[in-house]
């Protein structure tokens, strides 16, 4: 298949060797599971259990709220022992709403939804089932998958792209999943294609995963509409818009969706979750996580229940071989620093990394920008990062926005190549936060003004109506009075006459 | 400066060479041509070279001290050494020591630090210094000697060389050695009405031009060795092909056109490419990261501008060589070039509006 070149990008050392040959292994059931209510983009789920309740594995413990949300299920059977705030996997380190379950070790399942015959079912029902099972984008973005599976109703779609690029260094969870569950994934992919009503499926896998390509190729061989595409190993190949461009040669319009050009992108692990949800009724309560890094004794790929504290994973793989200088959730390019080992694993966590030495990049000093333009060459979005950063340093957010700040996907290629070690992504995140805050304030002010204006208008209208009514009454009274007066006068005239 | 907040945005991997690494590679790339130049022009050239670099470091240290900034990180990043080095390469090899010192102070302080230090300067520091020197001290700056390689008969010894550079005692009878640079000679002769080819061949030969056995500045004589260094920079991906290729291409094209129009007056393309500072400028001066545009298109515009200006100044200007002027003029245009040659943003047209595809939405 003809591939198209994308602009920029970088080639970080893969370091997937560490864990790529480790088969998926089940993590032993932890005693406590801290299940956050926000494991997705959108509104957090609302708890429907209370302290002391017995829950079964797979039972809904929090329901979705609003259109963009996802329910949360009990990862194992046990007792709800806590319902409150707990350390959350968020860079702020702030706690989030969490249900804590003390597991009973019985792993007793709740009554699951009936398996569906996806190829007979209504596409809408597939999306509904995916939604009920709490499936979200598992590449890290955690956008509720059902919303994306319903895009077929609003767009004329022609291609479903399955993202098996796994372009982040170290991570091998998708690689392992493809090698070990190729048939299930292929089934999941075909179910998704049916939900979206597309005729063509492209499964994109980076060339550094030959075993996965072979396994998926065998599994998909029987289906003409499913094609395995080997894409070059280059970061950020897994970026949705850039993967689409590589495969279709079309750029997604700025601020738009890939659906605007007729394609929808889902992650490979999401396809597996969809398979489980639709054909078995199993909700999303576990995922594959790569535990790796130079400081990890035994790099592994683990199947982990959501809500499992990170400490349990590290314990299981034999703790540290050396003191890690940096702990990360996710990949080293776009992952986030891990503040605390008690933080629970969530639906979107694909890796736990313990880095040391050069790889940790902790002891870097920032020097002046020498305008070397490495960042310009590396940016896959055609931005001029050095210029944006200079504007942000001067708090000139408008200039930064004009330079394309909001078109930045935050991939970090620029900061990766910067010889002056300027934390460009940090600048951009800061500015994006500031701009969002300003927009929110502006929106609030506008709304307040609108409401105030409406109120003034309403009050004026009421006052006018009152005044009118009063004048009318006055006029009527005056008329009446005049009539009475007239009558009285007549009478008087009569009397006097 | 307050301590920066902890890094919460990735990436947590680093590929890249540091700034000082970049400077080191550039110096490495300059080394063959420099060594050859030093060999050609002997010990006085070596003295001047060392004095200029030392003065650059001193200027940087003094400024940082006055500004109350830590001196060590800036001194050790190699940028001051490189500036001094590049400046020394553009000086007449037997120029007196104070030329190097004044040049270094101008380059570091006026050329770089008053703008805010490394990365902030608009103009190439070494070229600022060279132009100031050329205008202020035209005699010393155009006093070229015919090369007398080291260890050869007639090469000045260590003490004599000290006398050449530092000007005490009695130096060698350097008057007999003085000469004009190729471009200078050709310009003078053409001014006198001599046909350029005669003017050229009466004094020089192409062989000498290629291998640098001609009078000229310290670093601008050996085209093949400079080219070697330039290729090293390209291989190390510190520069891209855009500026050097377009710049030399523009010079060659203009030279070829005018040479075709009147071969008696206008030197041919090869002479232009091999003489003066063409190769040094194309690979090491115009490509200065700080003062050249950042996008590929911008670099092409910049290179073409430099090339055209060099040819214009050489051919019709008052100076035999125009590299420094051309680069400085294009430096001044760099912010403007950058503004109009930004890459196209993903998903947007060149004008910045979102792309429109055939509507897929129902």
UniProtKB/TrEMBL annotation, chain A:
GO annotation terms (biological process): electron transport chain
Names of the cofactor(s): [4Fe-4S] cluster
Keywords assigned: 4Fe-4S, Cell inner membrane, Cell membrane, Electron transport, Iron, Iron-sulfur, Membrane, Metal-binding, Repeat, Translocase, Transport
Subcellular location: Cell inner membrane
EC number: 7.-.-.-
EC class name: translocase
Main location: membrane
Basic and acidic residues bias locations: 441-479
Binding-site residues, [4Fe-4S] cluster 1: 369, 372, 375, 418
Residues annotated as domain 4Fe-4S ferredoxin-type: 360-389, 397-428
Coiled-coil annotated spans: none
Cofactor: binding comment: Binds 2 [4Fe-4S] clusters per subunit.
Membrane topology designation: Peripheral membrane protein
Entry GO terms, CC: plasma membrane
Disordered: region residues: 441-497
InterPro entries, sorted: 4Fe4S_Fe-S-bd, 4Fe4S_Fe_S_CS, Ion_transpt_RnfC/RsxC, Nuo51_FMN-bd, Nuo51_FMN-bd_sf, RnfC_N, Soluble_ligand-bd
Gene3D superfamilies xref list: 3.30.70.20, NADH-ubiquinone oxidoreductase 51kDa subunit
Single GO term (MF): metal ion binding
Chain sites annotated for binding [4Fe-4S] cluster 2: 379, 408, 411, 414
Task of the protein: Part of a membrane-bound complex that couples electron transfer with translocation of ions across the membrane.
PANTHER family recorded: ION-TRANSLOCATING OXIDOREDUCTASE COMPLEX SUBUNIT C
Similarity-based family: Belongs to the 4Fe4S bacterial-type ferredoxin family. RnfC subfamily.
Quaternary structure note: The complex is composed of six subunits: RnfA, RnfB, RnfC, RnfD, RnfE and RnfG.
Protein's UniProt name: Ion-translocating oxidoreductase complex subunit C
Organism the protein comes from: Magnetovibrio blakemorei
Phylogenetic lineage: Bacteria, Pseudomonadati, Pseudomonadota, Alphaproteobacteria, Rhodospirillales
UniProtKB/TrEMBL annotation, chain B:
Taxonomy of the source species: Bacteria, Pseudomonadati, Pseudomonadota, Alphaproteobacteria, Rhodospirillales
E.C. designation(s): 7.-.-.-
Annotated transmembrane regions: 21-39, 45-64, 97-115, 127-146, 209-234, 241-261, 273-291, 300-317
EC category name: translocase
Gene: rnfD
Required cofactor names: FMN
Protein name (record): Ion-translocating oxidoreductase complex subunit D
GO biological process: electron transport chain; transmembrane transport
Membrane topology, record value: Multi-pass membrane protein
GO cellular component terms, semicolon-separated: plasma membrane
Subcellular location: Cell inner membrane
Keywords: Cell inner membrane, Cell membrane, Electron transport, Flavoprotein, FMN, Membrane, Phosphoprotein, Translocase, Transmembrane, Transmembrane helix, Transport
